[in-house]
# Entry
Amino acid sequence: MLRALPRVLVCACAIAAPGVLRAEPAVISLARAYLGPDSTLDGVTSIHFVGGLDRVDPDHPEKGTIHAELDMIFVKPLRQRQIVRMERTSETTVLDGYDAWDRVQDNTNPVRFRMRWLSAGEIRALQANTWENLYFFRGVDANVAVEDKGPATVDGIACERVDFIHTPGISFERYFDRDTGRLVLSKRDSETIRENGEIPVDGIRFPKTIVSVTKTASGKDLVSTVTFESVTLNEPEAADVFAVPNVPPSEDAMPRPSTPAK
# Structure
């Protein structure tokens, strides 16, 4: 269940905000039961998503549908690797705890690339995204505040809104069906995210598609659709999955800082 799309295109027995103990909203237990048994959800240590990404730019419809292959790995507690492969370039974004980097590679020439260490703000966003994907709305991160905002109606469905606040600038609004616990809608800033279909894996429900809608500069809807081909849990982790690539520099390569951003 991909809880939030990365922005390439784009889950405490009682969870607490820093220094403040908060009771868990009742709908969280219902939402988790909808996805799978607690013991199964808590036993997930890694998730590997493989699929495709399709997008049409409403400001440039003449370009047609832009397609990319998507490969994402999330590993507890705070590791993530995302590869988005398009026709000409591939972009790899990696979070390794408190360090993160991004690399854009020319698919036809291995010495043509751009690489940079990510900023502190970008790292915090990746950490939040990793938590949201791995912990199924309940985790051990005492820095995540969970706030029950009460009833709301979405698509004609009676929902309960619950906000997951990672930092003052990074939060996710979740709207859960009050009867079933199904996640109906997610919001992150101006982005809306809906999950459709289902891929059952080892007793857990994952979505078949993720549809993300943001606004272009002209105010039109930019729709990105991720369709998953496979979801694999707890697979053995290769030693080099999160390693910084050791490639010779070229005139096209961005200089690498002596120390990563913190």
